[in-house]
Amino acid sequence: MAEVGAADAAQEREFLTYSGPTPGVKYPLSVTYCGECTMPIEYCEYYVNYEKCKEWLQKNVPDAFEKLTLGKASGEGEADKKEEGAEGEKKKRQTRGGKGLMKAKKKVEPQGIRMWTASRGKKKKVTIVVGLASYEIDLKEACKFFATKFSCGSSVSGDDEIVIQGDVKDDLFDILPEKWSQIDEDDIDDLGEKK
């Protein structure tokens, strides 16, 4: 057993020692980074929008683009056939690093604010407010504002729904237009009580 441990230690020391420059490599090394995904160009193929990376490489670094595409020309068709599903769409694969894709927010016309109360347990009530996001109001900020204003719990549930603990529906008619000027008092609908 002692001999095996000594052999492993000797191999590790050999691995960690510097043996000098590698023959055939020009120093200092220079790495070319893609302007689209901000990764070294060897890793562009793992970026979600690889097509945009190809366009950037073709425009800015044509010699590197040719090297990357020459190596893949023969096996590319087979890989694409494997990746295509029954619907003909390519499967989305998990990627790491690079820029995350930003989803474009759709411009939505304000449809009004609806609020109602619901019972929680036997005696407690919650107020549910829906429609603030269509007025371009940050739901997390609104939730925090309601929690401090009414000294209660408040949370965002769903894409455009805020749940406030307690029956504060009547107070919201005055507070919403006062806090956010884009909300008109006529836009607020009281739907009563739902279960």
UniProtKB/TrEMBL annotation:
<dbReference type="InterPro" id="IPR046447">
    <property type="entry name" value="DENR_C"/>
</dbReference>
<dbReference type="Pfam" id="PF21023">
    <property type="entry name" value="DENR_N"/>
</dbReference>
<feature type="compositionally biased region" description="Basic residues">
    <location>
        <begin position="91"/>
        <end position="103"/>
    </location>
</feature>
<feature type="region of interest" description="Disordered">
    <location>
        <begin position="76"/>
        <end position="103"/>
    </location>
</feature>
<dbReference type="InterPro" id="IPR001950">
    <property type="entry name" value="SUI1"/>
</dbReference>
<dbReference type="InterPro" id="IPR048517">
    <property type="entry name" value="DENR_N"/>
</dbReference>
<dbReference type="InterPro" id="IPR050318">
    <property type="entry name" value="DENR/SUI1_TIF"/>
</dbReference>
<comment type="similarity">
    <text>Belongs to the DENR family.</text>
</comment>
<dbReference type="InterPro" id="IPR036877">
    <property type="entry name" value="SUI1_dom_sf"/>
</dbReference>
<dbReference type="GO" id="GO:0002183">
    <property type="term" value="P:cytoplasmic translational initiation"/>
</dbReference>
<dbReference type="InterPro" id="IPR005873">
    <property type="entry name" value="DENR_eukaryotes"/>
</dbReference>
<dbReference type="Pfam" id="PF01253">
    <property type="entry name" value="SUI1"/>
</dbReference>
<feature type="compositionally biased region" description="Basic and acidic residues">
    <location>
        <begin position="78"/>
        <end position="90"/>
    </location>
</feature>
<feature type="domain" description="SUI1">
    <location>
        <begin position="113"/>
        <end position="180"/>
    </location>
</feature>
<protein>
    <recommendedName>
        <fullName>Density-regulated protein</fullName>
    </recommendedName>
</protein>
